[in-house]
Amino acid sequence: MKLAVIGGGGFRVPLIYRALCSGAFASLVDEVCLYDADHSRSAAIARVAADLPLPEGARPPRLTVNDRLEEALAGADVVFVAIRPGGAAGRVLDERAAIAEGVLGQETVGAGGLSYALRSIPEMLTIGESIRTTCPEAWVINFTNPAGIITRALQPVLGGRVIGICDSASGLVRRASLAAGAPLPFGTLTGVDYVGLNHLGWLRGLKYDGGDLLPALLADPARLASFEEGRVFGVPFLQMLGVLPNEYLFYYYFHAEARRSVAAAAETRGESLVRQQADLYPSLLAAEEPFTVWESARRAREEGYLAEARTAEETRDEADLAGGGYEQVALTAMRALLRDEPAELILNVRNDGAVLQLPADAVVEIPARVTGRGAEALAVRAPTPHQLGLMSLVSGVEQDVIAAVVHGDRALALRAFALHPLIDSGHTAQRLLRGYEKAFPGLPGLWR
Questions:
Q1: Whole-model pTM?
Q2: Which residues of the chain have pLDDT under 70?
Q3: What does the H/E/C string look like for the chain?
């Protein structure tokens, strides 16, 4: 079995390779092939992977690097895709253009996420066509952000063979179930009631032993304060809401505070990562112990995650700093697909009636059952009017931004910006879109 990683120079790729070397995912694939448009990045990450400290008896798959996309894809059984068109510098431009217009400057949510999508969709469609031509039977697991939008854009090309991955929803379920005293085995979602879109969802129930543990968890300030979402949103707000929101809903529920915090920071999240990693990849190519260099950078990166939602004194839990969610979700899905070992995971999948009030072709982030036949959304309880309202609005924006690229229609892109709830202004939308077109000269070339 062969796994091709497109965007193989990505920072978190060593986590995937390490998980494939031993433990539950050992022997799942025989080869991991890295491809990146920047060949030096994939070479650097290959050095880290080769230097990973592994337990005795580990059986690492063969690691190869290829600088030609079609050759990297040839013979692949599974393709992971995690690319960042525009690089880290593009992320900074996304953030700063939004801040300059007085709206939230964030990577995947709001104006920055829409700009990112406009750059990512064309490249992902090209990659999707290459996959369909070169390895049409391969399963495709998408990590490229914004994950829900990109997965939805790929469906007309790849059909049901593409699944979107994000670890934030699974992380919420893991943390909440531990705090509630009923840790769930990974790969099962029995009793979990979660509904939403990517970076926009709610945990609404944790049934265990005949009862729902969520109300008692919400009523217990000490237990709520024991995990990240409880601290981010605060006990009174969560008790008022009656559910546990995905951490990214901080940007919606505390929009003004998030906007002010991001704007007041000395540097954006993107600028922080650029500074931290300015010399990282050359260092990885030159270092005698590249893993040590990479691990130090990884810890620094995790410590700054969602910093605007925390006080200056608050730090992330050690379990969250250790990582593990991202690759565990992806590899559990891959094992289910390749070995037909059923697993239940919260994934980005085609709606197909799971949420009746949304279009069939919408991509929702909900519990899904993964088998050798693919991922199928599980039935979920209907969203409340509040949940459905936000989901419908954002899903409509996603539909518009995809159609804007596919049909070359600038008016649809403008509508997406104008109607997004974190922008919500036609005039601001006009200025934002013009600003992004100026910052990224390729964007005007999309319009017919």
A1: 0.94
A2: 304-324
A3: CEEEEECCCCCCHHHHHHHHHCHHHCCCCCEEEEECCCHHHHHHHHHHHHCCCCCCCCCCCEEEECCCHHHHHCCCCEEEECCCCCHHHHHHHHHHHHHHCCCCCCCCCCHHHHHHHHHHHHHHHHHHHHHHHHCCCCEEEECCCCHHHHHHHHHHHHHHHEEECCCHHHHHHHHHHHHHCCCCCCCCCCCEEEEEECCEEEEEEEEECCEECHHHHHCCHHHHCCCHHHHHHCHHHHHHHCCEECHHHHHHHCHHHHHHHHHHCCCCHHHHHHHHCCCHHHHHHHCCCHHHHHHHHHHHHHHCCCHHHCCCCCCCCHHHHCCCHHHHHHHHHHHHHHHCCCEEEEEEEECCCCCCCCCCCCEEEEEEEEECCEEEECCCCCCCHHHHHHHHHHHHHHHHHHHHHHHCCHHHHHHHHHHCCCCCCHHHHHHHHHHHHHHCCCCHHHCC
